[in-house]
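Example for tutorial group B:
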């Protein structure tokens, strides 16, 4: 009787242990992974690993894209401030401010419009729409600076006292400024779409 009893206990323990192992394996791996076909198991494991690698790569790419657009948006914010500064300076009644503006405009394309190193290094992550908008931005910026220089030259040639808030900027200057602001808005919208926010 003891050997029959021992056999029954051992068999029961084997069934319980097998059930627990089967339960743990089925919980730890996706369905089909715990099959008893080695080739099938390997294929499922490879698909799972490839899916994880693809998800990690997509996450890293998105982080790089977000960083690139963050750099771009920071630089464009500074340019917006510079554009508004030109507008404000054209209405200054202080000759020193106007002369400072003149010097800034003369070097504008070499200093202000040159992307900072951080922006230039990340521009390869921009999509085609952003690249096209940046090309349009540069063209309009040259118009803006050209009109600002012409208007400023007229102001500086004026030998009379400068009257605050007098009409100084041409309609072409304002049109170029308005177009630049529209491009800034379009770039911001495109960036929002690209990073999914």
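The residue assignment follows.
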């Amino acid at each position: 009787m003891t050997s029959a009893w021992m056999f029954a206990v051992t068999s029961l323990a084997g069934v319980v242990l097998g059930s627990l192992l089967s339960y743990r394996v089925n919980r730890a791996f996706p369905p089909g992974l715990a099959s008893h076909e080695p080739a099938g198991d390997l294929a499922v494991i490879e698909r799972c690993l490839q899916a994880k690698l693809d998800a990690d790569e997509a996450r890293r790419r998105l982080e790089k894209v977000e960083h690139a657009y963050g750099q771009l948006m920071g630089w464009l914010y500074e340019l917006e401030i510079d554009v508004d500064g030109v507008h404000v300076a054209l209405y200054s009644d202080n000759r020193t401010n106007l002369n400072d503006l003149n010097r800034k405009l003369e070097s504008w394309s070499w200093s202000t419009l040159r992307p900072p190193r951080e922006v230039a290094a990340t521009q390869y992550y921009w999509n085609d729409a952003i690249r096209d908008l940046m090309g349009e931005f540069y063209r309009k910026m040259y118009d803006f600076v050209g009109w600002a220089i012409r208007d400023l030259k007229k102001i500086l040639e004026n030998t009379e006292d400068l009257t605050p808030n007098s009409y100084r900027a041409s309609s072409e200057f304002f049109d170029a400024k308005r177009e630049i602001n529209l491009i800034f808005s379009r770039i911001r919208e495109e960036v929002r779409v690209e990073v999914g926010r």
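The two ends are 74 Å apart (CA to CA). Compare this with the pattern of hydrophobic and polar residues in the output above.
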